[in-house]
Amino acid sequence: MGFEKFGRKSFTAFTKTAKFVDFLLEGKIQGTVCKDCGAKYFPPRVDCAKCLSKNMDWFEMPGKGKLETFTTAYYAPLGFETDPPYTMGVVDFGGGLKLFARLAKDLKPEEIKVGLDVSVRPLKYEDGQISFEVIKA
Amino acid sequence: MKKEVAVIGVGQTAFVRGYDGSIRELAFDAFREAIRDAGITQKEIDASIFCSAPEYDKQRSPAGVLAEYLGLIPQPTFYVETICSSSSTGIKVAYSMIKSGLHDVVVVLGFQKMSELSSAESQERMGRGSDIQWEAPFGTMMPAYYALYAQAYMAKHGLTHEDMMNVRIKSSTYGVINDRAVYRKPIKPEDFKQGDPEAKMAGPVAWPLRVGDCCANADGSSCIILANAEKAKTFSKKPVWILGIGAASEAVNMAARPDFTKGLSVGYAAAAQAYKMAGITPKDVKVAEVHDCFTIAEIMAYEGLGFAPIGEGKQLIREKATYKEGRIPVNIDGGLLSKGHPIGATGGSQIRTIVLQLRGEAGPMQVPGEPDIGLTHNIGGVGLYGNVTIFGRDS
């Protein structure tokens, strides 16, 4: 349990990575790293795909990255109907670490460009859902 | 040329909005056309494979139900799924079954009745079309994912909205002459005019993709019958041989994608395997069907298949090289953009088109020059799965 609070709308309550939501509440965006082979993962996972170890630790994602790409959605699936338009994008932190999220509403459309220096912060919705969003660095 | 497994029969229903029958009746029509095309009866078929995207099916485990309706019991039957590439994956499985010697003749039937679901149910399924744990909670949909690729690609390679519009205009040119296509009206540049309320293709869906950049849902089925060399020579006057098969997979998460400016990795990987197996190069391909679920996807497919270098796919559409009379004709049946995209049926429909082209039976869509080698490129999800299959005819 615990993962039902993740995102604008969660589709699953059960995952062994549910602690990710607790970290968000503490203001941290955490990935996981394999203690045996050093592979880093975001989104986090409790099992290493490289060496099959279950010996994983949490680490805090880098503070700054670049916006690799983005899109603005004018239609939305069920449960998100009141949100459009909203912009989503991929942040590249380098070293193989990337993250997918919505961009903060206060980012002006004319500011949003491929290559923009960005950062990521936790986000709490009015209904209590917890997520994270991309902001200008 | 390897002559081990051949296509001996092809069939496809018209792709339509709101088919007024059941999935078994939908499947029957493509099957009947294919089995008559092959000139055989059900007794000659050793096994059947059914392919669809299961989230649209009300019927649990459709393979057994459909096999019975098509008169294919008690032969073995089963179900294969890789979303939008399900039926080309079915072809790979059927090829393997025949090549292993397990069966002589296998039928692959792809179907989808997307209108089986209400609009609300469909909207709900769309929200679960990606990783439901880490991405769907942001409100993702299929157009948004391809838009991520389009945005990065446009920024790096100078692809324009006009280029993408021209992919759709090419598609509509052939949708008009394909009586199995759902969208048969011609499309003009005025239909994309920004700010004109009459311009029905111009509205944003997931920017930079607009209405005209996206294919439509449809209901339909396709059927391909494969046979080993001995049976193919017995039954078929014009067998079309499978020369190469490639298939690949990729991470579902966008956060794990290596480079958004280089298209879908599965397209490259599957193409490399298929070319190697067939012993040919991209230059040998005379006609192709590529997975144009969105206009940007066709541009990326040109590059994945080696028809153009990375970043230069736009030149093919600018020079009309992928038109029927061009250097490498692509999607001369209107592609997904005009035919519509009944998910599980799409791969088989692409294969049917290529088989007809190689037999010289494609009617108004026939590519000139008696093409001898054709290719299909079928993608599942946002490059989660990719299949490339190469076909050749007897000379």
Pick out its properties.
heterodimer; A: 137 residues; mainly beta; 5-stranded mixed barrel; 3-stranded antiparallel sheet; 1 helix; B: 395 residues; alpha/beta; Peroxisomal Thiolase, Chain A, domain 1; 9-stranded mixed sheet; two-stranded antiparallel ribbon; 12 helices; 11 strands
- Greatest interface and its participating residue counts: A-B, 38 and 39 residues
Spatial arrangement of strands, main beta sheet of chain B = 3-2-4-7-1-8-11-10-9
Tell the overall outline of chain A.
globular
Low-confidence stretches of chain A: none
Mean pLDDT of chain B: 96
Task: Catalogue the unreliable spans of chain B.
Answer: none
Largest sheet of chain B: 9 strands, mixed
What fold name goes in the CATH topology slot of the domain at 5-118 and 217-235 in chain B? Peroxisomal Thiolase, Chain A, domain 1
Main CATH class of the domain at 5-118 and 217-235 in chain B: Alpha Beta
State mean pLDDT of chain A (0 to 100 scale): 96
Radius of gyration of chain A: 15 Å
CATH superfamily of the domain at 5-118 and 217-235 in chain B: Thiolase/Chalcone synthase
Question: SSE order of chain A in H/E notation?
Answer: HEEEEEEEE
Coarse morphology of chain B: globular
Structural class of chain A: mainly beta
How far apart the termini of chain B lie comes to 10 Å
In total, the number of strands of chain B is 11
